[in-house]
């Protein structure tokens, strides 16, 4: 999983500066930076605060953080087919 990358990607797509998201989530900018670079793993409460700051449901961050390595080999073909569609729906509903 790449939770930090998912958070950073959502933040950038929504044109939210790191310091602004950190303030909304009531964490420091340096802590958010560590989360986005996957150097720190936030607890669920912090993840929920970040999701709220990004105005997305928390499960969206979890879905966007999935990497091919997280998918069993026998299901990777299905993941490759469905992932672009699901990502498009997420973008249309929660980012655009």
TrEMBL record:
GO terms for cellular component: cytosol. SMART domains: HTH_XRE. Gene3D superfamilies: lambda repressor-like DNA-binding domains. Residues 7-61 form the HTH cro/C1-type domain. Keywords: DNA-binding. GO terms for molecular function: DNA binding; DNA-binding transcription factor activity. InterPro entries: Cro/C1-type_HTH (IPR001387), Lambda_DNA-bd_dom_sf (IPR010982), TransReg_Diox_bact_type (IPR050807). It comes from the Bacteria. PANTHER family: HTH-TYPE TRANSCRIPTIONAL REGULATOR, METHYLPHOSPHONATE SYNTHASE. This is XRE family transcriptional regulator. It comes from Chitinophaga silvatica.
